[in-house]
Design goal:
Layout lengths: L1 H24 L1 H18 L3 H5 L3 H20 L4 H26 L3 H44 L4 H11 L3 H14 L4 H11 L3 H16 L3 H50 L1 H9 L1 H24 L4
Amino acid sequence: MKSISFIFIIISLLFVCMVILRIRKTRHIFTREDDRKKLLFSLIGQSTSERDNQSLKKVLVQKISEKIFSIKHVFIADNLVDLIKRITIPVFFVLIIQIININFFHFPGLPIVLVLTPVSYFVWYKILLKKRKKVFEIDFTESISSINGAISSGRTFLQAMDDYSRNNNNNLAKEFGIITRRLNFGDSPEVVFLDSWKVYPYKEYYFFIVAILLNINSGGRLREVLGKLQRSLASNTAMEKKMLTLTSEMRMASKITGAIPFLFLILLKFISEENFNFIFDDPRGNVLLYYLLGSVGFGTLVIKFLMRKI
């Protein structure tokens, strides 16, 4: 059984390697995000040199607080029932795996729980994050069209945002309602939009905020800018769908190829339990298991590296 614990440790290390590869892939995105923050602070009028001279401890605390803030907005829901579902679904997944393990495979339960719990929460967080981004893109495109149409009919930008927040019931409309209320109360537009960008830290929303702040500070034709942004969003969406369509077969083939060895290993438990026990309990069989994990893990990392820009 010691080999079983060692196997789960190997799986954990492979998962950590995949996370590190993902972090390296998106490091340039965070660099651009810092540049966007500096530009927003310059629009606000705050000095970025004071922020650059902060101690390492303050910077780390600020980064951690911002990450917790973003995670909170991913898991937060409109009602208590949905919030409980989002928090407990990974726990139920781990419990189901544990029940299957106890009834059929009889592996040590503690390593499974220790490995699957953080992995399931991480995967669930990524799923919710992707879903939230997709919902935002749909709502944001609709909101730009609605606001641009209201401005064309003679409404002011603030009135157009207020109309959209009153006529729609999505999360973006609620955020626009918060913005209009804070602006009506006399809060600084720069600070209000900066706080809103922390809720939706997406590049589309960033361009929208910069266009609004530049229009407030120096004037300009807001309707034309919003029209160009709307056309840009439509073209980006079409390009992304085309890219996903062209790479769908390759991505699906890689997933199926990686899952086949594990599916056959599970099937072996019911077809030939003697060979299954040989693979997990006998040192000679462990070599086959280590080869399976190593080859699949290495192949997954190679595919992730090749598709890092897709």
